[in-house]
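INFO  loader      accepted 1 record
INFO  loader      residues=753
INFO  predictor   begin
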Amino acid sequence: MTAHDSSSTDPRVVESEIAKEQAHVDRVRAQLEIDENKARMLAKAGQDMYRSDRTSWVREEDGTAMFERDAFSYNAAKRLAVLDAEHEGLVFGRLDLTDDEVRHIGRIGVRNADYEPLVIDWRARAAEPFYRATPSDPMGVVRRRILRCRDDKVLGIEDDLLDSTSQANLPIIGEGALMAALSRARDTRMHSIVSTIQAEQDEAIRAPYQGVTTIMGGPGTGKTVVALHRAAFLLYSHRTRLENGGVLVIGPSSVFMSYIERVLPSLGEDSVTLRSVGQVPSDILPFSSDRLDEPRTANIKGSLEMVGVLTRLVNLPMPADSDSLQLRVTVKGEVLTLDASTLAITRQRILKRNRYNDGREAVEVSLRDQLWARVPADVLAAHDLTRDDFDELVSSQASWRMLLNAWWPTLSAPDVLARLADPAVAEAVTPDWDEESRQLLVSSIPTEADRRGRRNWSIADMALLDELAALLGPVPPEPDADAPVFIEGGDAEELVTLSDRLHDARQIDQNEPRDTFAHVLVDEAQDISPMQWRMIGRRGRQASWTIVGDPAQSAFPHPDQTRAALDELVGNSPSRTFTLTKNYRSPAEVFNLAADVVVSVQPDADLPQPVRSVGVNPTVVRTDDLWAQVRSQLDEMLKSVDGTIGLVCPAGLVEQARECADDPRIITVTTMQAKGLEYDGAVVVDPERIVAETGNLAGGVRVLYVALTRPTQRLAVVGLRKQNSSQLSEETQPVRDAGAPAWSEALWSHEAC
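INFO  predictor   done
INFO  writer      dumping tokens
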């Protein structure tokens, strides 16, 4: 027994070591209090730097002074916000080096009055050995220590001995931090892994900023949380560039975004924009969506074929009888006419050069030019008619206004997409489609609007609306709609301050460029459809990218289209790929079952290696009474796990499932909503229907694979002994082909006799 481990279980040594770390945490907290007081004083000084009692106007020099004040206040307030932020374990680590140096690692850097580091920011280069050091390559580290804290209190410590040859007399406490963290009960929020980042994860986190970084890995490898730590690292390393340009994080659903929203603030970063896929176009549309289409419909809407459909839809004249339209005006007794074919040619020519809404002025000019060319010379001479007079005469006629308002009205993206609910319009813009696909599209377009005129668009619709907004251009403002720039009279004391503007809700401006983000992070990328990639790409034309996903979890049936959309997005940018190989979520018993299922349709799936076992096999059972068995499994799981239980079910059964979720620890989600989430236990309901609802065998089995890999401790799978055709609609009948028995046999082979 060496000096390093001789006292690892001695309670007196453990207590003494905890007391040492508590003393350091106390020093850090005391220094933070000093820093916070300084920041408050600076913020107040900034506010008092300049005040004006003028109520009507402001001199230029006064405005300059207020700008300086705002900038001063902003910087002070920003520092205060960082210091005031809730940090889950501000100090979480310690490194003891071979040269007797001690480094404490934490969520933000803290220095004492002499500018000596009390805590090193986890993103700093000096903190790298905390994550990358191993017994085979200790990087000068003898002992790595994890501090388990609650608020300001050190509750425990876990040590890893990295250099067994060192002569330093350092006690080694505990069994290692990683396994301790993995056994922790889950709640409804994702937590950071900043204290337990592993070497392969750290390599991905600290990858170069430029180009495209792809992080691949199976379920439970920590892809999402690694990507979020990467965002925090990049903000630390490239602060000016990324804060000015912005960082956008995109996830699959609002449920998922709620799950991860605490991670970045806990790492000391709150300057990141979080959006679900259904919220991405909220910068140009005053609404978002959480509604999922039926999978087959979602696949249709996500296909690149929709680019041509939407282009034809924009080009299609609004009136149903456009072939009979004509423009007819009277000028000085002369009747001038433009027939339907002339109007159609004009429309095509204008749309080749202009976006639709931008082309309204151009089309008016073109039509007046064509009418002017039709005025007989003798009429011009008899009335001494000038071109300006002619234009005024034409534009003032009711027939002119009526034709333009009917044939070329100002259009919004929702106005245009709503036209697809008309079977005749849908047929005109999908000439090569089969009738079943066309009907799925038509029936999926919401026809009713709420009192504000908004329809219940789906997540897949949001990408189509964004595409249409790009094709149409911004809707021109109503005349006199803009508010005055200057306030006349009143009791206003000054201009709006910078801090006021920062806290105002973001205004929707369709003229605003959407390529302002400097870095875009896309999670669950395997489920992003080609049309959604086009939508996301408009937010990061000049951005660097972090793309996170796992092809084995994809539900989209056309990977070639997805690849084409991604290739267009990233172009020739430098790229790098990191593959995470360890499953830290699912115990071996759970993951082995899930792996058996997915390899039946994807033999080359990149399967991670589980790092632990719980000694309990999953419960796999078929029954004639589905919900009674689900209730029984939930009751058993409530007794066996301490944290959350995911009730994962097909979309068509979610309402029935919610009736079983009578405990706050039970969280009901559909299989698609479950992506990226984890629970201590999971009950997966009706796997046959999960596969069937997706609409394609391979995609359905991959979605089932997602459901099976959600738990960290216990899994139960409940299916029907016989699929009752009366319980399933025609479109959700189980998939029956040569591949179906393979996955089904793989799953039910784990059923207890």
